[in-house]
Amino acid sequence: METTARRTRRRTPEREAEFCGTVLELLREVGYDTLTMDTVAARTRSSKATLYRQYGNKAQLVCRALRHAKPGDLEEINTGTLHGDLHELVSRGDDCGMERDSALMQGLAMAVRANPDLRRAFKDLLIEPELCAVETMLRRAVDRGEVRADHPALAYVPHMLVGAFMARSLIEDRPPTPDFLAAYIDASVLPTLGS
Fold this sequence. Notes:
Layout: H1 2-10, H2 13-34, H3 37-44, H4 48-55, H5 58-69, H6 82-91, H7 95-114, H8 116-143, H9 157-172, H10 178-193
Helix pairs in contact: 2-3, 2-5, 2-7, 4-5, 5-8, 6-10, 7-8, 9-10
């Protein structure tokens, strides 16, 4: 019991940030399929048993590291306008971070399709919380009268945002940036919603 308590105390926010950063470094180096719990344990100076106890499996470990790397809690965004909320959403990243994230997400896309555990963890730990935050923004915009409640495009806003993030690399061979995403929101998302 003492050993468990001692381990728990050592898990500081700094150690968690270092740990998650190391998992993402490994993921960028070797990809999801080659990443192993043994490699993570060795690189993070943890035991494999501790990793399984704290994270469940490799898919959950990777998704928790990705979640930890996200800049801030999207649920906290509430500027008073849909324009302000969506701009705040995309301004939370920086060019460098978005470039790294874009490459990482493209690399994970194939693994997500091929691995049911990763797909489930990805949806539960990353997609659902972000969808909830965007849906909250949209609901507030409807309540304020900025967007009609029956507007058919409301259901597609998350698809538009994810599409812009992923497609820029494919179409222009350039990573998304906060400026690009803000311009996309102003030119495409808001006019589509009539806002």
